[in-house]
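call fold(seq) -> tokens
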Amino acid sequence: MKPQLMIGAASSGSGKTTFTMGILRALKNRGLKVQPYKCGPDYIDTKFHTLASGNESVNLDTWLGSEIHVRKLYQDYGNQADVCVVEGVMGLYDGHQRMQGSSAELAGLLDIPVILLVNAKSTAYSVAPLICGFKNFSPMVWIAGVVFNQVSSTSHYEHLKAACQDVGVECLGYLPFSKALKVPSRHLGLSLGAKKRMDEQIARTAELITRHVDLDRLLECCQTRWIEGKERSLGKGPLKIAVAKDAAFNFIYRENLEQLHRLGTVTFFSPLKGDDLPDADLVYLPGGYPELFAHRLQKHSQLMDALREYAEQGGKILAECGGMIYLSRSLTNRTGDKHYRMAGVLPLDCTMEGAKLHLGYRKMRFNGNEWRGHEFHYSDVVQPDALTSIAVQVNAKGMEVSTPIYRYKNVIAGYTHWYWGEKNILDLWEQ
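ret:
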């Protein structure tokens, strides 16, 4: 038996990430080893989880990976943990197609209970029918308890508790209303200063949870049978793989990195610091925040020169989103008055000026294989057809999207963050 729980919510904006970070830290403060997970493709919340718990968070996504793969990840990474905590995505039942890909679907797949977080601002006893609906909507979902957020007073909380009692769902506590608990902009990255501010907020949230949430009862409610996974084992492949990793490049799925370790020896390098390009059979430039550090990145011309030479000699490079921007010729800022020199590997120019959010699941067929990923960015390529796209991408509903995937010699680049947790990434270069 092991405490396992999904933190779900009635809707986006209910405070799931804040509450998840707080409960991860509160449990860690008790001396428990907590394994965090994130439902869906988000590569930012997982960094917050890792900061809060001290253990690296893992993405569980039933669209990016098979059900067998998702179960295996959950079991394997949770083996040594005392508690497993999964943060949901959007509202509990919100998926890319009705419930498909939702937090509810994942909770049912993993057979774990849900703690429902309800934003109680501007409501009281009226939460009763809402909670009743979430409790009874699907037989595959077990609502083990409710926690309220944005509670204004103890008398407000009494109304909320009464609603839970009448619906027959246990009320486990609340978080009081506090402007200080607002999560900073997700676009700030996790630089040293941002980490310090976030860590302070996590500590405040953990303190409030310890005071106002019955953690003992929550853990008791969520005790369920644990299915033992296998020990994670890494192969000893012959490849040498260089991975960019710093404050500018850090959107890396945990299992993608594990797959690279299985292929060979992984060496990290920092474009922000101007590290030398490691000797490599494959270079991976993940997404991140190059736009926040463009003025620093452009100063390290030696590394940019090395990447151009590596590419011209036929070296394999996979560049995703921010990594693709780094390989372009230039990046223009939001106001359009500053232009930063990039590596110039690709005949493309990127801009933040007037850019809008591009978001969603992506899928393509390439070299006889189906590849799935996720797109999340604000920048644009100025002339996207300056280099011909080598594949057509579609969204989760099968509708074609305009997102290109580029190839120059053995450089493969685009805005999509691909997931290859159960694939061999080298198949991208197979003919």
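The first helix runs from residue 16 to 29.
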